[in-house]
Design goal:
The complex is a heterodimer.
Chain A: E1 5-7, E2 10-13, E3 19-24, E4 31-37, E5 44-50, E6 53-57, E7 65-68, E8 75-79, E9 88-95, E10 107-108, E11 112-116
Parallel strand pairs in A: 2-11
Antiparallel strand pairs in A: 1-3, 3-8, 4-5, 4-9, 5-6, 7-8, 9-10, 9-11
Chain B: E1 3-5, E2 9-13, E3 18-25, E4 32-37, E5 44-49, E6 53-57, E7 60-65, E8 70-75, E9 84-91, E10 98-100, E11 104-109
Parallel strand pairs in B: 2-11
Antiparallel strand pairs in B: 1-3, 3-8, 4-5, 4-9, 6-7, 7-8, 9-10, 9-11
Classes of the chains: A mainly beta, B mainly beta.
């Protein structure tokens, strides 16, 4: 079964450094997302991306964050200058079209655990 | 605003049935999803409801009442591997993202 893949699985970085988290969504999916989950807390929406542009973003997704689809397969999340509170599991997800018969659920990758020291 | 509530923790015995409730208040509604998440892993899709009523998928069933802003996930014939968090998520109107509740951590005991 096709799956969303994310790299790296773990990333440790120092405060103030830039990080890029990478994702390869499922190939025939059109919608791409980034979510984060701070340890012990709920899965929080960051941004959705469709047709090569951001379709929606949350308050968390401030100017320090950016997303890109540099080619036909990769989808990246960049954090420009990391803060301690950015430490979390970051999940990439993709979906087909919304309103499909099965609701077009989001399919999640295994996540990148980001630790900012 | 959007608010999705679930119990924080539940326990049950192997072989039993458990019902996990979810209530939601959202500005719009375009479907409700249940996900399973084992510790340290990705959420995996379990079920979807957009119309009122019960959807059955093997040992798992999900129910929706839109007028009450209420859903439940029913797990039958519980197995030890069902120990996980169960996340209720709502899709808003006019968007494609899912908004997740805090999740219910289910522990199944022998």
């Amino acid at each position: 079964e096709p799956e969303v893949t994310q790299t790296p699985s773990h990333q440790v970085t120092q405060m103030g450094q830039e990080v890029i988290l990478r994702c390869v969504p499922i190939s025939n999916h059109l919608y791409f997302y980034w979510y984060r989950q701070i340890l012990g807390q709920k899965v929080e929406f960051l941004v959705s991306f469709y047709n090569n542009e951001i379709s929606e973003k949350s308050e968390i997704f401030d100017d320090q964050f950016s997303v890109e689809r540099p080619d036909g397969s990769n989808f990246t999340l960049k954090i420009r200058s990391t803060k301690l509170e950015d430490s979390a599991m970051y999940f990439c997800a993709s979906s087909e079209v919304t309103g499909g018969g099965d609701g077009s659920p989001l399919h999640f990758g295994n996540g990148t655990r980001l630790t900012v020291t | 605003g959007q608010n999705i509530d679930q119990p924080t923790e539940m326990t049950a015995t192997e072989g039993a049935i458990v019902q996990i409730n979810c209530t939601y208040q959202t500005s719009g509604f375009n479907g409700l999803f249940w996900y399973q998440q084992h510790a340290g892993e990705a959420p995996t899709f379990l079920s979807y409801n957009v119309l009122d009523g019960l959807e059955e998928k093997g040992r798992f069933s999900s129910f929706l009442s839109r007028s009450k802003g209420y859903s439940y996930l029913l797990l039958k014939e519980l197995q030890m591997k069902d120990s996980a968090s169960y996340l209720c998520a709502v899709r808003d109107l006019g968007g494609d993202k899912l908004i997740f509740g805090t999740g219910t951590r289910l522990q199944v005991f022998p």
